[in-house]
Automatic annotation (TrEMBL):
It comes from the Eukaryota. Transmembrane segments: none annotated. This is Luciferase. Residues 507-582 form the AMP-binding enzyme C-terminal domain. Keywords: Peroxisome. GO terms for molecular function: long-chain fatty acid-CoA ligase activity. PANTHER family: BCDNA.GH02901, LONG-CHAIN-FATTY-ACID--COA LIGASE. Its main location: other. Residues 161-456 form the AMP-dependent synthetase/ligase domain. GO terms for biological process: fatty-acyl-CoA biosynthetic process. One of its GO terms (cellular component) is peroxisome. It comes from Spodoptera exigua (Beet armyworm).
């Protein structure tokens, strides 16, 4: 490291700047944990003398700071009166990590503790078994999907949502981790479900009565995988049931068939598109796989689509900005599949530089609209040519519906590209359902072999969203510009009605994020005495930068029509979003409106 204050000197002395209160040596890791009287903690490598990492946690006045190495979990835990930190990195080398960058006020005791989840054993077994392959054909993926027949991809949800999902899917088996066991068991009980729980746990810890341990199930040798070959499956059979984001009510179970998945993977094999190269003895694409596997983007595109081409996936149990940036530098990643919050991070984080993009050849962003200014911020930091594409897809469409393509000239970064193979698009008046002329905005309909079979046990919702000729109503407003591609303007039910005029929140959010003092932004419509509704903005400031409500209002007013002006501004620390990065406007209205 460049700073010699972080290297053990030849005389055996290292300057900590503050008095050291304790040392803890761990022989199996050959590291020393150093604790100072101001609560600082450092991890010191014994051989090199390098400080591997330092803690941002600090003890309050009169408080204490503790350090403990848990051998069973292979993790270091650090805590003080304001927070808890824990980490092992993706190579299994134990380092210190802080989950909180600054202490939270004592008035928020229910928000104090945040711990990164341990990478589950099931997760590691799946990926480790798959990485060595150089290439597997689509037929191999078909065999893989047999393991997931009727797999209910519940993901991360509260007890109320889990009960709802369990009730409509009636699972027979529920695989989870210790951190989620309590909410899962209570949700199963509330839903009167008899599903068996399999716990992905640390083998040194006991499991509750009646619960199976994943490691024992996986290593029992009792599984006869040959039985799978005797199970007859048709392409139209349901392979898995992920859940939609639920922005228009309770999450809906989406029936994805084997044919849907295979078609989604085949789309990624188009010769002219911009997706992964097939691995060979000389080359293998490397992808940081942080997208949740319960989300269709992470499952079909991130996992199955990339394994079908022999890519290496560097998995993350839970997204951490510091870990993600570290992976970009140390793993020589070639592909980045991201969502808008990560795109904003890559473009605006002060620590990101050209070194993070040294091996990256292609970036694709999906799941929510991304402004051209955010794309340009990334490309400026990379300081080298990188293919950047945006795509459109939904849980209900299994895979991508549109994407920009490699080598496209004069790319408009506000566009989502052109239809993928076998995908048809149509735009209709949201009130009448009649087609609108090309180039005119309307609700986007999509027809493709990747479109879902139905909403699980919800024929009413299925009928409302599927046309008689097989088009799925996306609920997204947009238009197609010949020679350029698809433009998504907003969700139908998210439009703000100002004096009878429609205002798209995404447009104002993109504009607000171009302000140098704005880290992130969200806009909703709030009741207005004269206008009916008016835009209200929620702003996360960039660290150390100041901006007032009036300055932001003037900034927007100088660039938009009068009826689009921001009526109110609220500065917040966090904007609620789904795992894929979509802004939860309903939550904003509940919390702040």
């Amino acid at each position: 490291m460049g700073d010699d204050s972080l290297i053990l000197r030849e005389d055996g002395y290292i300057r900590m700047n503050f008095p050291v209160t304790s040392l803890t040596y761990h022989s199996n890791l050959n590291i020393i944990l150093v604790k100072t009287d101001v609560g600082g903690v450092h991890v010191l490598d014994v051989n090199s003398g390098v400080i591997l990492q330092s803690s941002c946690l600090s003890a309050d006045d009169g408080g204490t700071l503790g350090v403990e190495y848990a051998a069973g979990a292979d993790r270091v835990f650090v805590w003080d009166s304001s927070g808890v930190g824990a980490r092992t990195d993706y190579n299994g080398v134990l380092l210190l990590h802080t989950a909180l960058q600054r202490p939270l006020p004592s008035s928020q005791p229910d928000k104090i503790i945040r711990i990164e989840l341990v990478l589950s054993e099931a997760y590691k077994h799946t990926i480790n078994a798959s990485i060595p392959c150089k290439q597997c054909d689509v037929a191999s993926i078909a065999s893989l999907t047999r393991f997931y027949n009727k797999n209910i991809l519940l993901g991360q949800g509260c007890r109320f949502e889990l009960k709802h999902q369990i009730t409509i899917t009636e699972p027979k088996l529920f695989v989870t981790i210790p951190e989620c066991y309590d909410i899962v068991s209570k949700s199963l009980k509330a839903a009167n479900s008899q599903a068996k729980i399999v716990l992905v746990d640390n083998v040194s810890k006991p499991v509750p009565d009646g619960v199976a341990r994943y490691s024992e199930v996986a290593e029992s040798g009792e599984a006869d995988f040959g039985l799978l070959d005797k199970v007859e499956r048709k392409g139209d059979d349901v392979a898995c049931i992920p859940f939609s984001s639920g922005t228009t009510g309770l999450p809906k179970g989406v029936e994805i068939t084997y044919d849907n998945i295979l078609a989604g993977i085949e789309i990624m094999h188009q010769k002219e598109n911009c997706f992964p190269h097939v691995a060979n003895s000389d080359f293998q694409d490397i992808l940081p796989a942080f997208l949740p596997f319960f989300h269709i983007y992470g499952l079909v595109i991130g996992l199955m689509g990339h394994l079908s081409k022999g890519c290496k996936l560097v998995t993350m149990a839970k997204f951490s900005a510091s870990m993600y940036l570290d992976i970009l530098k140390t793993q020589k990643t070639t592909l980045l599949y991201i969502v808008p919050p990560v795109a904003i991070l890559l473009g605006k984080h002060p620590d990101v530089n050209e070194a993070h993009y040294r091996s990256v050849r292609h970036i694709i962003c999906g799941a929510a609209p991304l402004a051209a200014s955010d794309v340009e911020a990334i490309l400026q930091k990379s300081k080298r040519p990188i293919e950047f594409n945006q795509g459109f897809g939904m849980t209900e469409t299994t895979s991508l519906g549109t994407s920009t393509f490699k080598g496209t000239k004069n790319v408009d970064f506000n566009a989502c590209g052109v239809p993928m193979a076998s995908v048809q698009l149509m735009f209709a008046d949201p009130l009448t359902g009649k087609p609108v002329p090309v180039g005119q905005s309307g609700e986007m309909y999509i027809k493709s072999p990747t479109v879902m079979k139905a909403y699980h046990k919800n024929p009413k919702a299925t009928e409302e969203t599927m046309t008689k000729d097989g088009f799925f109503k996306t609920g997204d407003m947009g238009y197609f510009k010949p020679g350029v591609g698809l433009f998504i303007t907003d969700r139908i039910k998210e439009l703000i009605k100002v004096k009878g005029m429609q205002v798209a929140p995404a447009e104002l959010e993109s504009l607000l994020r171009t302000h140098p003092a704005v880290q992130d932004a969200a806009v909703i419509g709030v009741p207005h005495e004269f206008y009916g509704e008016a835009p209200k903005a929620f702003i996360i400031r960039k660290n150390g930068l100041k901006i007032t409500e009036e300055e932001l209002q003037d900034f927007v007013a100088s660039k938009v029509a009068v009826y689009k002006k921001i009526e109110e501004v609220m500065f917040v620390d966090e904007i609620p979003k789904t795992a894929s990065g979509k802004i939860l406007r309903k939550e904003l209205k509940k919390m702040y409106a």
